[in-house]
Write a structure and sequence with these properties.
Layout lengths: L1 E4 L3 H13 L3 E4 L3 E5 L11 E4 L2 H8 L8 E4 L2 H9 L13 H8 L5 E7 L5 H8 L3 E12 L4 H10 L2 E4 L2 H10 L2 H8 L3 E4 L2 H11 L11 H11 L1
Parallel strand pairs: 1-2, 1-8, 4-5, 4-6, 6-7, 8-9
Antiparallel strand pairs: 3-7
Helix pairs in contact: 2-3, 4-5, 7-9
Length: 230
């Protein structure tokens, strides 16, 4: 089975190794690029630092050191990245969605540092504020669409039986390359997999196409679902 991966080039390379180990053929189709941004941490003390992605962890902790702040993460990959830098994770919601993260903070007070993407969604930021926390968003990277010649992207999509969208940005990246009707036509006969509810929602909204979701938005759950399809 040939599977098209649409994350950033670096993430596609990492996931490709695991999928090929399981016997899948990978079509490399990164549809977004992550660009580091210059940033400066406010010179105040924080009670919590919240990481929503491994990328935010890498870019922040490669430049900054933490002290006594409690680290909260979303997702096992993000937790592993934190531990790779020598820090302990204070809390991680069982589910991978913003509402579950907010439940961890219900009843807590203090200052929260939120290193994140410049194009990140606002639900977590606004939700933490609504709970009475003092939140400082810090943009450490941004995401932009990776552009192709039209024939190149059509050729790559034609090779794949399954297309995996790991984020809403990847869906939008496809539409930065192709007209909506063209994208719908190319994807209509393929199995589409979305990692997470938000990605599924954006795919349905922008392309009006159904998709399957792994049990969790992790590489392990993705591979398990691909095996059932194969």
């Amino acid at each position: 089975m040939k599977v098209a991966l649409t994350r950033s080039p670096e993430d596609v390379q990492k996931d490709k190794v695991a999928l090929e180990r399981e016997g899948f053929q990978v079509v490399e189709l990164p549809l977004l690029e992550e660009v580091p941004l210059p940033f400066e941490v406010p010179k105040i003390e924080f009670d919590y630092v919240v990481f929503l992605s491994p990328r935010a962890v890498r870019l922040f902790l490669s430049k900054c050191q933490l002290g006594e702040e409690k680290i909260v993460v979303v997702g096992e990959k993000t937790a592993r990245e934190v531990r790779a830098f020598g820090y302990q994770v204070w809390a991680m919601p069982e589910e991978y969605y913003g509402q579950e993260l907010l439940e961890l903070f219900r009843g807590l007070k203090g200052r929260v540092l939120l290193p994140r993407s410049a194009v990140g969604r606002e639900e977590v930021l606004e939700g933490l504020k609504s709970l009475g926390l003092e939140v400082y968003p810090l943009e450490v990277y941004t995401v932009r669409a990776k552009l192709y010649e039209e024939e190149e992207i059509k050729e790559k999509l034609s090779q794949a039986q399954v297309v995996v969208f790991a984020s809403p940005s990847a869906v939008k990246g496809l539409l930065a390359n192709l007209q909506r009707q063209t994208a719908q036509s190319l994807l209509a006969q393929k199995r589409l997999l979305c990692l997470g509810k938000t990605t599924e929602s954006v795919l349905r909204q922008l392309l009006d196409l159904p998709c399957l979701k792994p049990e969790k938005p992790t590489l392990e759950s993705l591979i398990a679902l691909l095996k059932t399809l194969a």
